[in-house]
Design brief:
This protein has 16 helices and 22 strands. It has helices spanning 10-19, 32-41, 54-59, 75-88, 100-107, 121-133, 167-170, 208-218, 237-248, 260-269, 283-288, 304-316, 332-338, 346-358, 392-395, 438-444; strands at residues 2-6, 24-29, 45-48, 67-70, 92-97, 117-120, 138-144, 149-155, 176-183, 186-188, 201-206, 230-233, 254-257, 274-277, 296-299, 321-325, 342-344, 365-369, 374-380, 403-410, 413-415, 428-434. Helix 10 (260-269) links the parallel strand 13 (254-257) and strand 14 (274-277). The chain is globular.
Length: 445
Amino acid sequence: MRVIVIGAGEVGTNIAESLATDHHVVVVDTDEDRIDAITYSHDVLTIEGDGTSIETLDEAGIQSADMVIASTDVDETNIVVCGAAKAVAKPFTIARVKQTKLLRTWERSTGAFGVDFMVCSDLQTAETIVSIAGLPGARDVETFANGIVTMAEFEVEAESPVAGQTVSEADRFDSLTFAAILRGDEVIIPRGDTVIRVGDDIVVIGTDASVRSFASTLTTAATIDDADEVVIVGGSEIGAQTARIFEEHGFEPRLIERDRDRARELAERLPGTLVLRSDATDIDFLVREHVGESDIVVAALDSDEKNLLVALLASRTGVDRTIGVVQNAEYVDLFETVGIDVGVNPRFVTAEEITRFTREQPTENLAMLEHDRAEVLEFEVGPGSLLQGNRIRDVTAELPDRVVIGAVTREGELITPRGETVVQEGDHVVVFLDTEVLDAVSAVL
């Protein structure tokens, strides 16, 4: 498949990196330095030019393109790119936008703006924040099989009871599979005698109840299910959408916004949210408003440094858990080390959603972990699958290394996969795998 990616920023670069192995990717950007950087770091064709120009699109091979992904930082540019591509050819078009109102307009009119699929960064980020808030200690959360199966990633801290235990000792939960351990740059497929170390990230797959039970053994941090107080700092669109989604979960969050006009606007938009006009970096205000008694604080200001400061102040005043928006992907690990419990990067979240949609494999859902080092796939077993009609233990040797069958669902019911489990045609299977073996797995499953 020929894919043209317009925009070589963090989103475009992540998309290009994910697709370059299996597709012919062309990246277009007006910035010479960005083009030079991606030329030397990725196996893609690069063009310095304006993606809204028909001449540039022709140079990129628009007539033979199967897909155009507009991923610049300017919403209007991305929409014009899709419209221009549709005017001269028939590729499938994907646009990244930040403004939720553009997404709502597009949703009400099929094919509006010449866009076949639209991803809203702000909304996607807000949804990610709320899903992470739903599990104590979780660094990433995804659902599969219409919500029957949950995948979650947790970091093992020094005080965690599973630290130093083997997987067999830690595996005390029904309907749960230990899919992987991410240790440094390693992707480890755990066995019963694998020892869980402090600093490991554990990936588990199972029912929502079993994953929550496992999470409760790792930390006492609050979730949105048992939280009494949720505070959102920053009336950005991400902050506003996060508040709205919390409202939909039945909460009455507090949102702190410094700008008077923006605070008034949000108070009108969010009837279930208490909007406070103040500077959340003022520790006296935090103490006066009892923010330290909150269970979860979400930092959604327009500055990474301010979000880190808010998280540090919130933790200092006694907040159980902090989740911060981190626009610079290079800061995420650092910020999580020094002050934010979980950092969410909007550009990576957007790139993951777009890449998920573009995958050609017959998967119904996909999640990427650790910046595409590992993936979790959901697919329906067909007549040509290696699994069809076989016990899992009988086909394990024919699967590539670093692959784990994490869950099987049949007619809406979860079957915890074991060696004797016979997989039937029509079953939905959730598989964890190292990204390096994706093609080999897709060929047999």
